[in-house]
Amino acid sequence: QVQLVESGGGLVQPGGSLRLSCAASGFTFSSYAVTWYRQAPGKERGLVADMTSTGSTTGYANSVKGRFTISRDNAKNTVYLQMNSLKPEDTAMYYCGAGRVWRKYDYWGQGTQVTVSS
Fold first, then answer.
1. Which of 30, 53, 63, 94 has its CA 20 to 30 A from that of 4?
2. Consecutive 10-residue averages of pLDDT for the chain (118 residues)
3. CA–CA separation, 13 vs 6, rounded Å?
4. Helical spans, DSSP H, in the chain
């Protein structure tokens, strides 16, 4: 049974940091590309960051470049999203995903809420 379980969301002040985690199970994690997407109320879900199975290639939305970093630990079957210098416009539900092909994601978690507010 495939599972992706996100954690680490919460309420943070502007300028603060959070680290999201996504624990995977039920598939060969090290063979899969991974991603973080987000969806704010009234907006479509969009790419935040992603990484190939080997970690050799990463991609970021322009709005988060230089502030967010995606990483993975294949020994722990976990993907992370380090978010620094958070802004109110980063407020959204954050979802992790995985797929055999980069940018074609088959599996999704249930999401974790990030709220940036003073």
1. 63
2. 97 98 97 98 96 95 98 97 98 98 95 97
3. 21
4. none
At residue 111, the pLDDT reads: 97
Q: Is 1 exposed, middle or buried (0-12, 13-18, 19+ CB in 10 A)?
A: exposed
Q: DSSP string spanning 33-46?
A: EEEEEEE-TTS--E
Q: What is the C-alpha separation between 100 and 44, in angstroms, rounded?
A: 23
Residues 15 and 57: their CA atoms lie apart, in Å, by 27
Please give the Cα distance from 68 to 49 (Å, whole number): 8
How many Å apart are CA 114 and CA 118, to the nearest integer? 13
Cβ neighbours around 87 below 10 Å, total: 13
What gap in Å lies between CA 76 and CA 85, rounded to an integer? 27
